[in-house]
Amino acid sequence: MLAAVALACPLSADGTAEARPLTAAEALGLAKRHDRKARRFEKLSRREVGRARKALAHKSGAPMAARPERQPKLKARSHRRKAKRYAAKARWHRRQAARLRRLAGGLSKVPPPPVLRRAPIPLGAAVAWDEFESDHRLKDTFLSHFDQMTPENEMKWGHVHPEILHWNFTTPDAMVDWALAHGKRVRGHTLIWSKQNPSWVENGTWTRESLLLVMKNHIKTTIAHFRDRVHEWDVVNEAIDFHGGWTDNIWYRVIGPDYVDYAFRYAHEADPHAELYYNEQWLDVADHPHSQGVIELMRDLRNRGVPVDGVGMQAHVTTQASGSQSQVSELMGRFTELGLDVAITEMDVRTEGSDPSAERETQRSVYGAYARACRLEPRCTSFSTWGVADPYSWYEDPALAPLLFDGDFNAKPAFHEVQDWIRTP
Ligand code: XIL
User: Cα 156 vs. chain centroid, distance in angstroms?
Assistant: First the structure.
């Protein structure tokens, strides 16, 4: 039986493996070779995605040979096809590596080796500046334990652009400068959403053309303002509703579904090097109409060459309702196979049961499932919670205690779990 396993091993074409069963050490060696190949193909795939993007960026540049208006699109499509093929090869090698590791575990008496980890990922948190300014414990906890900041509200439309001719970047400027001065990265959040828009936008009288102009101006001005300081943006937030249809908002009503295309294209024009994310709630299991709607939207955007780089999975969950690690991993895989990065962008876990110590333990394991899924997914770029400590959660009920630090700013078991999976080399 073991000989059959050796024969089935795709890298054992040198004859020796066919003649006798694999040892555990040999299986591990082969697994490593598959890992190396997978990494190579992942790199090639990323390179092709970059080339596809570049091809499209040339659209407005130098004239091309025959049929100038189609050439960049065709080129981009061919690069994307190549990227897909490389990604499929990479996945195949990853599967072989996993199979061989399982085999090695069965063959040897010693426990199977730990899953190979990639480099640590930034651990982020949403920050409300007025709370930071008024409670130094929040600032201190953030400084000691987090690598990345997301302004909780301060970059939203209503804050930075409250009147048609009035821009106000004072607070987000202070936040970004403070974060960078302390060696933290910043995620920009969020450019186009159905909420927290000023009344001049929500109640204006618009045509498709005039609203597109307003949207373009907002996106370009905001991204350009932070261009050298913020390199990752949630461009569109929550465009798909719970049932998988379009969220009813001013953008969809006046412009139509292609408002999403335009938002990403304007953002890309404003900063071609920025990482552009589609950010969405309820992305915890693949097999749900909402997740399916988002996957379809992403596939459609990618097929049409819209410059979207990643999907932010908000992960506002509870101890009673969340995805398991394998469900979250599966859903991440549905996005990465489209050539997208993923990130956990707003995680919190509301505790809803009555036994506080059991709830803390469940909370630890729910956070752990998402953190593991992220660390084990090569394209998961960061892991953020929506706030730092329970007293300042956006959920006002203190009993929900959804964050990683408690009311006394002590780390909860969930923090150690997340820290171990996200930040530990
Ligand atoms: C929330 C803020 O935390 C609150 O302070 C504000 O009143 C409403 O918005 N998904 C998102 C975030 O993308 O922007 C939301 O932030 C939480 C849900």
Answer: 19
